[in-house]
Hints:
Layout: E1 3-13, E2 21-30, E3 33-38, E4 46-49, E5 53-57, E6 59-61, H1 82-93, H2 98-114, E7 117-124, H3 133-143, E8 146-153, H4 172-186, E9 198-201, H5 209-222, E10 226-230, H6 234-244, H7 248-254, E11 262-266, H8 272-281, E12 284-287, H9 289-294, H10 302-308, E13 311-314, H11 327-342, H12 349-363, E14 380-384, H13 396-402, E15 410-413, E16 416-420, E17 423-424, H14 429-444
Parallel strand pairs: 1-4, 1-5, 6-7, 7-8, 8-9, 10-11, 11-12, 12-13
Antiparallel strand pairs: 1-2, 2-3, 5-14, 14-15, 15-16, 16-17
Helix pairs in contact: 2-3, 2-14, 4-5, 7-8, 11-12, 12-13
Amino acid sequence: xxxxxxxxxARVVTMDAGRTEVEGxxxxxxxxxxxxxxxxLATRGTVVEAQGCVVTPGLxxxxxxxxxxLTRAVPGGQDALLFGWLKTLYPIWARFGPExxxxxxxxxxxxxxxxxxxxxxxxxxxxxxGARLDDTIDAAREIGLRFHPTRGAMSIGTSAGGLxxxxxxxxxxxxxxxxxRVVDAFHDPAEGxxxxxxxxxxxxxxxxxxxxxxxxxxxxxKGVMLHTHLAENDEDIAYSLAQFGCRPGQYAEDLGWTxxxxxxxxxxxxxxxxxxxxxxxxxxxxxxxxxxxRLGSGIAPVRAxxxxxxxxxxGVDGSASNDAGNLIAEARTAMLLQRVARGAxxxxxxxxLEIATLGGARVLGRSDCGVLEPGKRADIAVWDLxxxxxxxxxxxVAALLLCGPTRVRxxxxxxxxxxxxxxxxxxDLPGVIETQNHLARRLMA
Length: 445
């Protein structure tokens, strides 16, 4: 069985139960699994020298819309709030097809990998012109990231009082049928799985209560997780109160959308009772700080959530509302926003890194990931702190969040090299970028 030894790192950050950090540390990988963490380890296999580097678990992204990498910095949506932003972009997205979905996913996944991400979810909720969830799953397999795609959906168009155009909504029986298809075709419940599928009706303002209930029943029958947007901004809260007569947390609970198998994106406007509900039920939250800033949605109460025991992870959100997909930069922003809201001691660099690694694995239900210890999957990021970004830094682990770098040197997923020397090695990235730009120009025409 092949071995890889990451040797003599300045610091290995394990995220184990004791939050152990090993100075001058080594990590031994055998057969896609971590075999040992310590000092002075040996191998007859491949050696990766890590002097001047910090080694961490791979970062975990729990909310994305990969298809949106084709619509970054769109003029009509640059300065709009959530609902106006969506209305600008829906007609553009309606022109997508399978090629746009696959290439945009490749671009977004490569960007995540270069920022240290080894596992990501994706929320794909529109399927124009023959596009399928299969297109993004194929892209993730090509690049080699661990993938949690979710079969999203929109079923209430403008003619029925919803926000999306009728051309982008689907009939609910067809949605449920395809949800069942993709779970049966792609979901792998085994330890070390590279693909796990979730079910993800888009939002309370784009699907019916019936679809939310039926999706929850189907997910639990199939043993898969549930995901949606919730309490993203003030408009979202107002809509819930006007249409459902309750706040988003109550809406979720009434429809079976709380529990350890559920995670909600954003949750910027959760109140104290909703935070307690999520803590009590084990419901997870994907915090998307840069997107929340970009759309002016507000600062999520992450400190209050964490203190209450809510599982909190990070998400870059779609690249039409971020507009980047850099997960280590997202962790830094999360830390800074909590300090803006609550003071300089509200969140440390190490806590932000924990949320970005172990926190993400917990929210996605992956007890086999997010930690560097024997028996866990070998999803590992190697960060070179010998460059100018961290020059003069005293605490290299904190420097990773406070200074940089924001690009990983080496990345391993299931023990396989995805990034080496700061470059993607699993695909022709210049070719992907060229195709991506060609598709974007075609959409602009």
